[in-house]
Structures are given as C-alpha cells and as structure tokens.
Amino acid sequence: MKIAIGNDHAGTAYKFKVIEYLKESGIEVQNYGTDSTDSVDYPDFVHPVATEVNDGTAELGILICGSGNGVAMSANKHQKVRAALCWTREIVELARSHNNANILCIPARFTAPEQAVDMVKTFLETSFEGGRHERRVDKIPMGC
C-alpha cells in the first residue's frame, strides 16, 4: 500500500509521528509536506497528495494543517477525492465506512499527536460498507 502525506507548518511534528507509524506498519509513504515549521501555503502541499489519490498512484492520502479545513477544501477540488476533516476515531470510522473517504484531514491544533496516529490506524483499518452508501457516494462528484 502507498500513502501520500502532506502538511503545512502546523502539521510538521504530527506528520513525522504518522510517518513513523506508517513505516513501522510496512506502508510505503510519499512525503509531500514541508519538513519545517516555517510558514508555507498549504495548497502547495495538498495538490500533489490529492493528485496522487485522484490518479490512483496512491491508495490513500493524509493531510495535516492547523484546523484541517484548508487542506480539506483544497483536496476536495479534485474530482475523485473525498477528503474528510476528522478529529475523533469515530468520525474517521464513519468517513471511511459511509463516505468512502480516501484522504484523512487532521487538525493539528485541535488534536494530540497520539490521537492523530490513532485516527490514521482507524482510517487504514476501516473499509467502505458500500450498499446504500454507494449510491450516495456516487452522487458526490460534479460533472466537468
């Protein structure tokens, strides 16, 4: 499995913890985030992650910024991306099982690093239920 990950300056420390967990789990990681805490523009790091997920080069993506909103909004501009802003394991589980989320967006300023890793574990372990949720998910993309 390959996961693309990106972050802005608010998510750097969280990203390193998540990457450590992913690599320990034998997951290939493509790091598009900044490795610094110097201020950056989050879309510069979001779009490469979202492009990989959109094109199927990466199976899933993880994005981290201060509130999680900017990265989610940017990622969701990509046609096949379903980026979910999550701050608890329960929300992550529903985003995957009901909405087939393929990018997890984590708000670093509103979660703890250990919580972020726990959410990533849930994101990876939860499958899409399909069924009645499939028809709803199929209605998400707008025609181009």
How would you describe this protein?
The model has no long low-confidence stretch (mean pLDDT 96). The chain is an alpha/beta fold and 144 residues long. The protein is globular and about 45 Å long. The protein contains 6 helices and 5 strands. The chain has a 5-stranded parallel sheet, with helices on both faces. Helix 4 links the parallel strand 4 and strand 5. It has one domain: Ribose 5-phosphate Isomerase B, Chain: A, CATH 3.40.1400.10. It is 43% helix and 17% strand.
The overall strand count is 5
CATH topology: the name is Ribose 5-phosphate Isomerase B, Chain: A
Range of helix content: 40-55%
Our measurement of the CA-to-CA distance between the termini, rounded to an integer number of angstroms, reads: 30 Å
Give the helices and strands, then pairings.
Blueprint: E1 2-7, H1 12-24, E2 28-31, H2 43-55, E3 60-65, H3 69-75, E4 83-85, H4 89-97, E5 103-107, H5 113-125, H6 132-138
Parallel strand pairs: 1-2, 1-3, 3-5, 4-5
Which terms summarize this structure?
144 residues, alpha/beta, five-stranded parallel β-sheet, 6 helices
Give a quick summary of the entry.
This protein has 144 residues and is α/β, with parallel strands linked by helices. It has helices at 12-24, 43-55, 69-75, 89-97, 113-125, 132-138, and strands at 2-7, 28-31, 60-65, 83-85, 103-107.
